[in-house]
Hints:
The protein is an alpha+beta fold. The chain has a single domain, classed as Orthogonal Bundle (434 Repressor (Amino-terminal Domain)), CATH 1.10.260. Helices cover 54% and strands 12% of the residues. It has a two-stranded antiparallel ribbon with strand order 1-2. The longest helix has 15 residues. It holds the Pfam family HTH_3. InterPro entries: Cro/C1-type_HTH, Lambda_DNA-bd_dom_sf.
Amino acid sequence: MQMNSLVAQGRVIAAGRMLAGLDQEQLATEAGLSPSTVSRIECGHRRVRPATLEAVWRALDRLGIDLTRNSRTGHYAAGTSFG
């Protein structure tokens, strides 16, 4: 089953959040957003403003989570970073 890019992006953000050990409310606090915004992003229900998405990605990055999007295939991935 192929999913659209908004759903794929949302699932990767949810995976990154779970890798960080956060619930949606905690991620929202870390990113300076409302929990409902995080929920909508993870469900892929709407396109997200670039600044909002950047806030989520930066919050996860501060927690050691790497979110990437392959520019060739468009696939998203979440992983951890150690350093």
